[in-house]
């Protein structure tokens, strides 16, 4: 059974004319790195809220690790870790106290009134995570004195402390510097390898989703597409060959002789773009005698495919 299973999920808010989520279905396998992408207002946050037991569904089936998110919410919460987009810290406590209460609420350790009295396993794990995200110096300071970026790092530690089976990352690296972003992803990947953690990611940094196992795009409350990043790119976009030469006329003549379609600006001053066609790049180059000054292959990115999916499903929504 998939670690996350969503079948015909519908959510309609009171007084709303149409459902925010309209029959969404998808599955996430154990250990998978899954990206859930969509513009603001597409139904993404509503879906995640239902999956994390903070919002009731109207109809449909949703299970996490085999547990129903409504009937067995307690068991679901024990299995998941969540990095919320909005802060959820107690500002009056220190950073470490926020982590300690979280760990004890999950039943990992019996509560002790100070960090030093906590078991060595807890202390070692907290210090290890603090070093990974870079808040060692602020670990025992009041949260209210920490910057927004530091608070974000603290939330990351708190969500990882109990080594969850499923980790929900809602814009996890928002507000983090490049070094912290890289360290966080290295640690998350090591968790997946060591513990088989399933990771459910939402992000506006589409490049972070390039390495996921599966990506689903939601728009206007419906799934616009769900596949691996490579399959998504291949289904919508093709690579382009960028060519140029001092003898542009000779180059375009040779491309025409090869039966290839190409694009060029109206003034014929820029490079020549050859969209992916029946011939391979090697075959095209082998068929050209004109000396080239530019030879590049443009591979479509996941962001290109994401934008194309939104365009085909009615465009992004505000």
UniProtKB/TrEMBL annotation:
Domain of life where this protein originates: Bacteria
E.C. number: 3.6.3.28
Alphabetical UniProt keywords: ATP-binding, Hydrolase, Nucleotide-binding, Transport
Signal peptide: none
SUPFAM superfamilies cross-referenced by the UniProt entry: P-loop containing nucleoside triphosphate hydrolases (SSF52540)
InterPro entries listed in its UniProt record: AAA+_ATPase, ABC_transporter-like_ATP-bd, ABC_transporter-like_CS, ABC_transporter_ATP-binding, P-loop_NTPase
Domain ABC transporter per the UniProt entry, residue ranges: 4-245
GO molecular function, one term: ATP hydrolysis activity
Annotated transmembrane regions: none
SMART domains referenced in this protein's UniProt entry, alphabetically: AAA
EC top class named in words: hydrolase
Family listed: Belongs to the ABC transporter superfamily.
Descriptive protein name: Phosphonate-transporting ATPase
